[in-house]
Specification:
123 residues, alpha/beta, Nucleotidyltransferase, domain 5, five-stranded mixed β-sheet, 5 strands
Length: 123
């Protein structure tokens, strides 16, 4: 006798998009931050340099949103981190997904004069 997976109903949530130069990670959580589902470009089937393309990012976000709709996600706040090519592509997918976006925040960490730079190169 196979058990069917029980999904808790979540109408509001958060979408975290981490867009690095080599990969794009998408995590969808409920309002309190508990992870519902996640996806990445490698999980969708891209390898090597194709992982760092905007198309791979859209595929990863579509995969995560499809899983999140099983939980009943209708409204989300979006947090984007990183400089990668998946930033804009991800927002385009969100616009057409049917999930209502209530807020978009850029949470990319910016150093306030961070680490000491390497010494000047002498040739």
């Amino acid at each position: 006798m196979a058990k069917t997976k029980q999904f808790k109903k979540v109408t509001k949530g958060r979408i975290y998009i981490t867009a690095t130069f080599n990969n794009t990670l998408v995590t969808i959580t409920d309002e309190s931050g508990n992870t519902l589902c996640w996806s990445a470009t490698g999980k969708v089937g891209f390898k090597g340099s194709r992982k760092s393309t905007p198309f791979a990012a859209t595929s990863a976000l579509e995969d995560a949103l499809q899983k999140a709709k099983e939980y009943g996600l209708r409204e989300a706040r979006v947090f984007i981190k990183g400089p990668g090519p998946g930033r804009d592509a991800g927002l385009r997918v969100l616009r057409d997904s049917g999930v209502r976006v209530s807020m978009i925040a850029d949470v990319t960490p910016i150093p306030h004069n961070g680490c000491r730079p390497k010494k000047r190169r002498r040739v």
